[in-house]
Amino acid sequence: MDFGNMDENIGRPPDRPLNFTLNYITNSFILNWDDNTESDFKEYEIYRSIRINNFSFENHKLIGTITGSYFIDNNLPSTNSMTSYNYSINAIDDEGLRSENNWVYHYFY
Questions:
Q1: Sign (positive/negative) of CA torsion 103, 29, 33, 45?
Q2: pLDDT the model gives residue 37
Q3: Which of 71, 74, 77, 99 could form a disulfide with 91 if both were Cys (CB 3.0 to 4.6 A apart)?
Q4: What's the CA gap between 77 and 83, in Å, rounded?
């Protein structure tokens, strides 16, 4: 049996998304990160948590599953209160293994 061509990623979770950035533009957040180049990469899951006036409004809700390295969240609840938006992304591979989460935060006061 030739083990020289085995995929080194088998049985190992994907690397977490790197260089995750968040920008706010006119009632939308634009999320960007580096592409996952692993041979068994399948998709990304994007989660959002929202706190309004220090009370949890939405807790780690799945808002998207995509294969690209950017996401536009334009489905924001309207608020004029002190609000924090917390996003996390994890990569998923062909085996269903998930990377560690990568978090980014944005606060409105």
A1: positive
A2: 94
A3: 99
A4: 10
Please indicate, yes or no, if residue 55 is contained in any of the structural domains. Answer: yes
CATH number for position 79: 2.60.40.10
Copy the structure tokens of residue 47. 């989660």
pTM: 0.83
Per-residue pLDDT tens over the stretch 87-108: 999 999 999 999 988 888 776 6
According to DSSP, the β-strands at 55-66 and 102-108 are unpaired
Q: What is the pLDDT of residue 42?
A: 97
Q: Per the domain annotation, does 10 fall within a domain?
A: no
Helix and strand numbers (H, E) in the chain are 0, 7
Tokens of 40: 């068994």
Q: Within a domain: residue 26?
A: yes
Q: Count of alpha carbons within 13 Å of 105, Cβ hemisphere only?
A: 5
Domain count, the chain: 1
Q: Which amino acid is it at 15? A: D
**Residue tagged 């030739």 (tokens):** 2
